[in-house]
């Protein structure tokens, strides 16, 4: 049995994929890490040997008012406000002795407004959270009481792999909006790069959409049509035993979705059933250029979420080191 699509029956297709791909109880009833269990000290030590040149790349977009958010689901761009400034210090009105002055600031933003991780409490399936837990008792107004993203903070560091599907499958390095990236596309890209994908890897998938919107304007980048993973990749996402996956798009999966009436069906399988850590809106362009130049598509990657207690998502500044 493999994950398939019946465009007219999204609920049935999702249910079948959920049964096929479920990791419930795989790591015990109390598990809060999901697929990060694949990323072990042994795989992490091996990944550290990938650092050869010592060059590093931030895979994060900027966190500022010029971001892509337009208010959907109350998501806004970050608002950065200064609390103390050099002007205050020069005026001598900060109240500190001996001429010392300083600056302080604050930021207000949704946790998933720019480069970010989706935590395990972010998506439910028919009222069930990851590992079969009751969603109503898992995530309340107090936050994610069980699988808060703070549990993942020490673990997201290891072997990173870039699959530049935009460069291998696309035209001029970009996939068109609505392009569904299948398992075959991922495997073809890996083969073209001379890289393997396996247990404990943190996989990054470049579609080229971020490149395009930077050239043409944000448009509907935060919520509109996009290239992305096909629903049919759910089985590969589980069976490959990757630790996490991230894309340069807002929604990770292809949009419009592949059913006549559905909203983020791959999320509905990947997060509550597979327990997969999903990253979105990552900036992979500089890393992709370097990988193409030196022919190496694997690297050390550290991408810890902020340990915000009870959060179902987190901003992140992933850093790849080659």
Automatic annotation (TrEMBL):
Q: What is the lineage of its organism?
A: Bacteria, Bacillati, Actinomycetota, Actinomycetes, Mycobacteriales
Q: Which residues cross the membrane?
A: none
GO molecular function list:
arylformamidase activity
Top-rank lineage group of the source organism: Bacteria
GO biological process entries: L-tryptophan catabolic process to kynurenine
Query: Entry's InterPro entries?
Result: KFase/CYL, KFase_sf
Q: What is this protein called?
A: Cyclase
One of the Pfam families matching this protein, by short name? Cyclase
């Amino acid at each position: 049995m493999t994950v398939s699509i019946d465009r007219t029956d999204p609920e049935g297709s999702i249910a079948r994929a959920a049964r096929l791909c479920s990791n419930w109880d795989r790591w015990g009833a109390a598990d809060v890490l999901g697929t990060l269990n694949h990323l072990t000290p042994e795989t992490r030590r091996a990944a550290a040997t990938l650092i050869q040149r010592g060059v590093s790349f931030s895979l994060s977009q900027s966190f500022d008012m010029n971001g892509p958010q337009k208010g959907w689901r109350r998501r806004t761009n970050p608002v950065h406000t200064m609390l103390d400034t050099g002007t205050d210090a020069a005026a001598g009105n900060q109240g500190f002795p001996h001429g010392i002055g300083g600056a302080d600031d604050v930021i207000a933003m949704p946790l998933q407004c720019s480069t970010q991780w989706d935590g395990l409490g972010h998506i439910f399936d028919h009222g069930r959270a990851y590992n079969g837990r009751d969603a109503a008792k898992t995530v309340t107004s107090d936050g994610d009481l069980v699988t808060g993203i703070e549990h993942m903070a020490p673990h997201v560091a290891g072997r990173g792999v870039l699959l530049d599907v935009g460069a291998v499958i696309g035209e001029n390095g970009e996939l068109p909006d609505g392009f569904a990236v299948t398992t075959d596309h991922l495997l073809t890209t890996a083969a073209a790069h001379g890289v393997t994908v396996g247990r404990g890897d943190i996989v990054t998938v470049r579609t080229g959409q971020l490149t395009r919107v930077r050239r043409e304007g944000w448009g509907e980048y935060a919520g509109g049509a996009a290239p992305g993973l096909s629903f049919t990749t759910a089985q590969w996402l589980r069976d490959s035993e990757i630790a996490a996956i991230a894309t340069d798009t807002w929604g990770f999966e292809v949009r419009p979705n592949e059913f006549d009436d559905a909203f983020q069906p791959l999320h509905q399988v990947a997060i509550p059933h597979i327990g997969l850590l999903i990253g979105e809106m990552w900036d992979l362009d500089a890393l992709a250029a370097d990988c193409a130049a030196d022919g190496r598509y694997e690297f050390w990657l550290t991408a810890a979420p902020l340990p915000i207690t009870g959060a179902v998502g987190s901003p992140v500044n992933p850093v790849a080191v080659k």
